[in-house]
Amino acid sequence: MIRKVRSEDFEDVLEIYREGMATGIATFETRVPSEDGWDRKFHPELRFVYEDGGKILGWVSLTPFSARNAYRGVGEVSVYVKHGAGGSGIGTSLLRHLEEEARRAGYWTLQAAIFEENTASIRLHEKCGFRIVGVREKIAMRDGVWHNNVLMEKRIVE
Protein backbone atom coordinates (compact mmCIF):
# COMPACT_ATOMS: atom_id res chain seq x y z
CA MET A 1 0.00 0.00 0.00
CA ILE A 2 1.23 3.50 -0.81
CA ARG A 3 0.51 6.25 1.68
CA LYS A 4 1.89 9.59 2.85
CA VAL A 5 4.98 9.52 5.05
CA ARG A 6 4.18 9.85 8.77
CA SER A 7 6.59 10.90 11.51
CA GLU A 8 6.74 7.34 12.84
CA ASP A 9 8.11 6.20 9.44
CA PHE A 10 11.21 8.34 9.77
CA GLU A 11 13.61 5.66 11.06
CA ASP A 12 12.56 3.17 8.36
CA VAL A 13 12.82 5.83 5.65
CA LEU A 14 16.29 6.79 6.84
CA GLU A 15 17.40 3.16 7.00
CA ILE A 16 16.45 2.73 3.35
CA TYR A 17 18.30 5.96 2.58
CA ARG A 18 21.38 4.63 4.45
CA GLU A 19 21.26 1.50 2.29
CA GLY A 20 21.22 3.69 -0.82
CA MET A 21 24.10 5.78 0.48
CA ALA A 22 26.14 2.62 1.13
CA THR A 23 26.00 1.69 -2.57
CA GLY A 24 27.99 4.81 -3.41
CA ILE A 25 25.83 5.43 -6.51
CA ALA A 26 22.50 6.60 -5.12
CA THR A 27 23.28 10.04 -3.70
CA PHE A 28 26.12 12.50 -3.36
CA GLU A 29 25.15 13.00 0.28
CA THR A 30 27.67 11.55 2.69
CA ARG A 31 25.74 11.99 5.94
CA VAL A 32 22.27 10.83 6.84
CA PRO A 33 20.11 13.89 7.50
CA SER A 34 18.30 14.58 10.73
CA GLU A 35 14.53 14.22 10.72
CA ASP A 36 14.26 18.00 10.56
CA GLY A 37 16.74 18.21 7.67
CA TRP A 38 14.93 15.49 5.72
CA ASP A 39 11.63 17.19 6.48
CA ARG A 40 12.83 20.57 5.15
CA LYS A 41 14.25 19.09 1.94
CA PHE A 42 11.15 17.43 0.52
CA HIS A 43 7.74 18.84 -0.38
CA PRO A 44 5.57 18.11 2.69
CA GLU A 45 2.59 16.85 0.67
CA LEU A 46 4.57 14.91 -1.94
CA ARG A 47 6.40 12.18 -0.05
CA PHE A 48 5.11 8.66 0.17
CA VAL A 49 6.07 5.22 1.45
CA TYR A 50 5.31 1.76 0.17
CA GLU A 51 4.18 -0.36 3.10
CA ASP A 52 3.56 -4.11 3.07
CA GLY A 53 2.69 -6.12 6.16
CA GLY A 54 3.61 -3.23 8.42
CA LYS A 55 7.07 -2.87 6.86
CA ILE A 56 8.27 0.14 4.88
CA LEU A 57 9.82 -1.20 1.66
CA GLY A 58 10.43 2.04 -0.21
CA TRP A 59 9.82 5.75 -0.38
CA VAL A 60 9.51 8.50 -2.96
CA SER A 61 9.49 12.26 -2.64
CA LEU A 62 9.63 15.46 -4.61
CA THR A 63 11.95 18.44 -4.12
CA PRO A 64 11.06 21.72 -5.82
CA PHE A 65 13.61 22.33 -8.59
CA SER A 66 13.95 26.05 -7.94
CA ALA A 67 12.49 28.85 -5.85
CA ARG A 68 12.03 30.90 -9.03
CA ASN A 69 8.39 31.31 -9.99
CA ALA A 70 9.00 30.24 -13.60
CA TYR A 71 10.01 26.77 -12.34
CA ARG A 72 7.25 26.35 -9.75
CA GLY A 73 5.92 23.29 -11.59
CA VAL A 74 9.25 21.49 -11.88
CA GLY A 75 10.31 19.00 -9.23
CA GLU A 76 13.16 16.55 -8.73
CA VAL A 77 12.18 13.03 -7.72
CA SER A 78 13.95 10.82 -5.21
CA VAL A 79 12.99 7.15 -5.04
CA TYR A 80 14.56 4.50 -2.82
CA VAL A 81 13.66 0.83 -2.41
CA LYS A 82 14.78 -1.35 0.50
CA HIS A 83 17.70 -3.65 -0.22
CA GLY A 84 16.33 -7.02 -1.32
CA ALA A 85 12.99 -5.59 -2.49
CA GLY A 86 14.24 -4.25 -5.83
CA GLY A 87 12.74 -5.65 -9.02
CA SER A 88 9.38 -6.26 -7.36
CA GLY A 89 7.56 -3.26 -8.85
CA ILE A 90 7.76 -1.12 -5.71
CA GLY A 91 9.81 1.61 -7.37
CA THR A 92 7.48 1.69 -10.37
CA SER A 93 4.40 1.93 -8.14
CA LEU A 94 5.95 4.71 -6.08
CA LEU A 95 7.05 6.77 -9.10
CA ARG A 96 3.66 6.44 -10.78
CA HIS A 97 1.88 7.44 -7.58
CA LEU A 98 4.14 10.47 -7.15
CA GLU A 99 3.47 11.50 -10.75
CA GLU A 100 -0.29 11.53 -10.18
CA GLU A 101 0.00 13.45 -6.92
CA ALA A 102 2.48 15.94 -8.41
CA ARG A 103 0.13 16.59 -11.34
CA ARG A 104 -2.73 17.26 -8.90
CA ALA A 105 -0.46 19.65 -6.99
CA GLY A 106 0.25 21.70 -10.14
CA TYR A 107 3.58 20.27 -11.26
CA TRP A 108 4.21 19.91 -14.99
CA THR A 109 7.68 18.35 -15.22
CA LEU A 110 9.49 15.78 -13.10
CA GLN A 111 13.27 15.51 -13.19
CA ALA A 112 15.83 13.03 -11.94
CA ALA A 113 19.61 13.26 -11.70
CA ILE A 114 21.01 9.73 -11.53
CA PHE A 115 24.52 8.35 -11.21
CA GLU A 116 25.51 6.92 -14.58
CA GLU A 117 26.45 3.66 -12.85
CA ASN A 118 22.98 3.31 -11.31
CA THR A 119 21.55 1.44 -14.28
CA ALA A 120 18.65 0.01 -12.27
CA SER A 121 17.41 3.52 -11.46
CA ILE A 122 17.85 4.67 -15.05
CA ARG A 123 15.82 1.66 -16.26
CA LEU A 124 13.13 2.34 -13.63
CA HIS A 125 12.75 5.94 -14.75
CA GLU A 126 12.68 4.95 -18.43
CA LYS A 127 9.99 2.36 -17.64
CA CYS A 128 7.94 5.17 -16.08
CA GLY A 129 8.28 7.37 -19.16
CA PHE A 130 11.28 9.51 -18.28
CA ARG A 131 13.75 10.30 -21.06
CA ILE A 132 17.43 11.09 -20.92
CA VAL A 133 18.03 14.77 -21.71
CA GLY A 134 21.74 14.92 -21.00
CA VAL A 135 24.75 13.84 -19.02
CA ARG A 136 26.74 16.08 -16.70
CA GLU A 137 30.26 14.70 -16.94
CA LYS A 138 32.38 14.48 -13.81
CA ILE A 139 29.91 16.78 -12.09
CA ALA A 140 30.81 15.78 -8.55
CA MET A 141 33.23 13.69 -6.56
CA ARG A 142 32.25 11.12 -3.98
CA ASP A 143 34.83 9.19 -2.00
CA GLY A 144 37.58 10.46 -4.29
CA VAL A 145 35.86 9.29 -7.49
CA TRP A 146 34.39 11.56 -10.17
CA HIS A 147 30.86 10.66 -11.23
CA ASN A 148 28.71 11.53 -14.21
CA ASN A 149 25.05 12.38 -13.64
CA VAL A 150 22.39 11.32 -16.13
CA LEU A 151 19.64 13.94 -16.36
CA MET A 152 16.17 12.56 -16.99
CA GLU A 153 12.80 14.24 -17.20
CA LYS A 154 9.16 13.58 -17.84
CA ARG A 155 6.52 16.11 -18.83
CA ILE A 156 3.39 15.15 -16.87
CA VAL A 157 0.90 17.64 -18.36
CA GLU A 158 0.25 18.70 -21.94
From TrEMBL:
InterPro entries found in the cross-reference section: Acyl_CoA_acyltransferase, GNAT_dom
SUPFAM superfamilies assigned: Acyl-CoA N-acyltransferases (Nat)
One Pfam family it belongs to: Acetyltransf_1
Keywords from the named record: Acyltransferase, Transferase
Domain N-acetyltransferase: 1-157
Keyword Acyltransferase assigned: yes
GO molecular function, one term: acyltransferase activity, transferring groups other than amino-acyl groups
Name this polypeptide is given: Phosphinothricin acetyltransferase
Source organism (scientific name): Bhargavaea ginsengi
